[in-house]
Amino acid sequence: MNLKQVSWNNIENLDDELITYLLYKEGKSIEAISLIRNISREKVEKDIIDAKIKLRTLKTTKKDQKKTLLDKMLELPKKKRLEFIKNGQPKVLQELYNEIKQRYRYIDNPDDRATVIWIIGELKNSSSISLLSKDVIHYNGNVRRMVCSALGKIGDSRAKPVLHKALQDEKPQVRQYAAKALRDIGDKDTISLLLKVVNNKSEKDYVKNTCLETIQTIKQNLNLT
After folding, report:
1. Cβ–Cβ contacts within 10 Å for residue 136, how many?
2. pLDDT tens, position by position, for the chain (225 residues)?
């Protein structure tokens, strides 16, 4: 998105904070915006601040903007990214993760977003579960698939509710990746959900096979076999 697109003519593509900001820019008071948008005064003030930050970023041209660590990572091929993460110093990798947290919500391109999610998975930072969980309902199927993959790499049991939800995704690949991601963190409830997928007559065979493999692994982990 560029500055010209931040207008009422492009309202269907604007984030909530930018819509709030356009009303603010027209001279409407905080109270008026709160009534118009049916949100609290505090939310209006937060939206305006967030919008100003986003607009400030948009004003920075490519020519003037110094490439950040994340920018460089997005330009690298997958093999080089993996090498960087494998050999990177903890301080540098933490810097990368901090930048991802700051910029994540503004990464609109689904391919870039999927790549960033892949990076998060390789960093294996458990604190990123809440960041990723919101994208389990992302409009792009590949993004949802990568969320499951990343959560599987992180391997934290707090991701179970997100992955359980992904087992009902409309895309079979997402369901498959969710099942695979649950192997090391699943429980008895997971087994029940996986069996529902397996018993679905219309389910793809490769999804069923992954579910059965995961069920077997969970049973072994829980000493149920």
Report:
1. 21
2. 667 778 888 888 888 899 999 998 888 888 899 999 999 989 999 999 888 888 877 766 544 457 889 989 998 889 999 999 999 999 999 999 999 999 998 888 888 999 999 999 999 999 999 999 999 999 999 999 999 999 999 999 999 999 999 999 999 999 999 999 999 999 999 999 999 999 999 999 999 999 999 999 999 999 986
The 3-state secondary structure of 87-138 reads: HCCHHHHHHHHHHHHHHHHHCCCHHHHHHHHHHHHHHCCHHHHHHHHHHHHC
* Tokens found for residue 97: 């993760």
Annotated domain spans of the chain:
3-59, 69-221
Whether the predicted model's global pTM rises above the 0.90 cut? no
How far is Cα 20 from Cα 25, in angstroms, rounded to an integer?
9
Amino acid at 61: T
Q: What is the CATH number of domain 69-221?
A: 1.25.10.10
Place of tokens 């359980």: 164
Angle, nearest 10°, between helix axes 172-181 and 205-221? 10
Contacts 24+ apart (CB under 8 A), 132-136: 132/159, 132/162, 133/159, 133/162, 136/162, 136/165, 136/166
Q: How far is CA 199 from CA 162, 174, 195, 203, in A?
A: 21, 18, 6, 8
